[in-house]
Amino acid sequence: MSASPDPIVLPGGSTTVVLIHGYTGSPAEMALLADSLQHEGYGVECPLLAGHGTCLEDLMPLEPDQWLKQLEAVVDRLQHQGQSVVVGGLSLGAILALQVARRRPSIQGVITYSPPVISGDPRALIAPLLAKVLASVPRPADDFVDPTTAERIWTYTRWPSRCSVKVLELIADTRRQLAEVTKPLLVMASRLDRVITPRGVNRLRQQVSSPYVELQWLENSGHLITTDAEWRTVAAVTAEFIRRLGD
Question: By three-state DSSP, how is residue 164 classified?
């Protein structure tokens, strides 16, 4: 965990991309993508989600609505400043991005990286039971293709059980609400990812009401596609998607 968990704020032009990190992670997961997007002329903000970047005990009592209110405040501020806003997220961040998109339909577009619409972690089925007996559980094993990825991220080593149940409830709610997402959507995921499922990716693509949906499968990345071996492809596809939103 050599990277910093601090928020990322990079100035740019008239469009700002709000990037949302994953569960128990930090903005460091988005740093390479953020730098690349700024180089393309976009502003970028990647807030540190409440309960993250400090100690696991700070995350244990969190409710997902706290993250949504935090993100909505960022979007509202940027739009008040005259910015066009695109929202993107990794893993849990992808779920939060979909929620922001349905709650703030004035954004320009939404991007989901490794969206866990249906979890590939078998522990998800017994999470409520685990929460009654264990305060926390180990994170799934890293699946990096590029081993230097570990040097670029900052994360907790465990998942708090109670909060994890709340996250799973948010994901279930989001599955039921996909038709309320009406903005152009980019979905990016890796076929090697063990955290998500292709069934969940296809459900997302098929059930949103977006006028345009682009699906990009990667072949040589783990779950953290924004910082693993194919991050340059992720950045290039992201920038092209945002450019098309302005056409």
Answer: helix
